[in-house]
Write a structure and sequence with these properties.
The chain is an alpha+beta fold. The protein is built from eleven helices and 17 strands. The longest helix is centred in the C-terminal third of the chain and has 24 residues. It binds flavin mononucleotide. The site of flavin mononucleotide (FMN) has 21 residues, from α10.
Length: 414
């Protein structure tokens, strides 16, 4: 089974990642991976740290001559900032009391982490719980995308809203990706067709040209001002992003066991990203207030093309825990980042038990654009895992054979 593990601290020497059971024969383009890593470091509202780091993947094993070999893949992502932290990250030298942190920052892993692991220096928690770890996940996701590209599966992501601005606030927020064949009124919940297609050429160019990764440029200025204002106030903002995946074959995942469900795994992959507080598939939360007759995506058959299709996609491409051949659409909400530059938050010194204010530490004001890249990678890992469960083999050649046979089987059934 495809799996990966990461290790490394935010200010340590770097991140080490091992990917196990990645098939042989997949072409690996270092520039593609580095491009994704650069996107994770970019975006309006990021802090000074990103100016120090320029992540470049360094393979230690499993990739040779531009192709995966089938052996475990390991890679290193160097923390350039380590040079400034050598003293405080020393492996052996004991740390003086003055350098230790005893004041947990609300919203971080600090409090529960230091109690759970009986650590008398919160730095041990914050170094590992930091979102620096997401660099590893982005590189793993890029590798998964390289594998899935061989089967025409493509990924896109965009920021939908920040700090309450954007589509998330629209009263007619929809989840119908295409015009509904069902024109019946359903009170306030009739959705205007939005046709949000992140693969559309113009939308794709907009996302590419936007420092906020917005699909529509209209709000760019306003949101920048919102972020600038938050910075002035020493505050932070969150937001919502969307990931879409197209050309996923029907039948990844299964209904037969709870932990075989594709939507369940995607939810875990995305929810485990630092600061993500909700994951929606398709219409998501909004589906709770739509009538069944409006929500379900009717099934049609195009004789000429010899394929089934839907006119709507409220299910976000997954029914019964399985991909249904439509675009998989996942939305995630990111909370406002917990480190604030002004002492707004009350906390307690774990040593003295006295009230204190949370300490500011170099931090981002908004990391939603970066999180959208992490989300894309997280979804790519889930899709690759389930793709390999279905078509798995030791090499790309073997997987292609399995895939082609299955596609013949399901088109024969049509
Ligand atoms: C790409 C990315 C960058 C982040 N940058 C920061 C940051 O600069 N400051 C901060 O306080 N939190 C940041 N976070 C969020 C924290 O890491 C996260 O809130 C914290 O680890 C607690 O986890 P939880 O919010 O999932 O409970 C970032 C998250 C992501 C995904």
């Amino acid at each position: 089974m495809l799996r990966f593990l990461t290790a490394g601290e935010s200010h340590g020497k770097g991140l080490v990642t091992i990917i196990d059971n990645f098939p042989a024969g997949v072409k690996i383009d270092g520039d593609f991976i580095d491009g994704k890593l650069a996107l994770r470091q970019s975006g309006y509202g990021r802090g000074a740290r990103q100016k120090i780091e320029t992540d470049k993947i360094e393979f230690l094993s499993g990739v040779r001559g531009g192709y995966t070999t089938g052996s475990p893949i390991s890679f290193f992502l160097k923390n350039k900032d380590y040079e400034n932290w050598k003293e405080r990250m020393d492996n052996y030298k004991p740390f003086s009391e003055e350098t230790k942190i005893h004041v947990p920052r609300p919203g971080h892993a600090d409090f529960a982490g230091s109690l759970k692991y009986a650590l008398d220096d919160i730095r041990n928690v914050l170094e590992r719980s930091s979102a620096r770890e997401t660099a590893s996940r982005v590189a793993v996701g890029a590798m998964c995308q390289a594998l899935l590209k061989n089967f025409g599966i493509e990924f896109a992501s965009a920021v939908i809203g920040i700090g309450g601005m954007g589509e998330i606030n629209a009263p007619n927020r929809r989840r119908q990706l295409k015009t509904s064949e069902n024109t019946k009124k359903a009170g306030d919940h009739v959705f205007k067709s939005n046709n949000l297609d992140l693969f559309d050429e113009i939308i794709s160019a907009n996302i590419h040209n936007s420092e906020l990764r917005l699909p529509f440029p209209g709000l760019e200025k306003k949101i920048r001002l919102l972020i600038d204002e938050a910075k002035k106030q020493g505050d932070t903002v969150g937001g919502v992003f969307e990931v879409q995946v197209k050309n996923v074959p029907v039948g990844l995942g299964s209904y037969i066991q709870w932990d075989e469900k594709l939507d369940g795994h995607i939810a875990m992959s995305c929810m485990s990203i630092q600061a993500i507080k909700s994951v929606e598939i398709g219409a998501g939360v909004i589906s709770s207030s739509i009538k069944g007759s409006d929500y379900q995506d009717s099934i049609f058959y195009n004789k000429a093309a010899g394929r089934y299709f839907r006119k709507t996609n409220n299910a976000g491409g997954i029914e019964g825990g399985m991909s249904n051949g439509e675009v998989i659409a996942v939305r995630c909400a990111m909370k406002p980042l917990p480190t604030l530059m002004k002492p707004y938050l009350n906390t307690v010194n774990l040593k003295t038990k006295k009230d204190e204010k949370a300490f500011p530490e170099r931090s981002d004001i908004c990391a939603v654009p970066a999180a959208s890249i992490v989300g894309e990678a997280a979804v790519a890992y889930s899709i690759a895992l389930f793709f390999l469960k279905k078509f798995g083999g030791d090499s790309l050649t073997e997987i292609k054979r399995n895939y082609d046979g299955y596609i013949r089987q399901i088109s024969g059934a049509a």
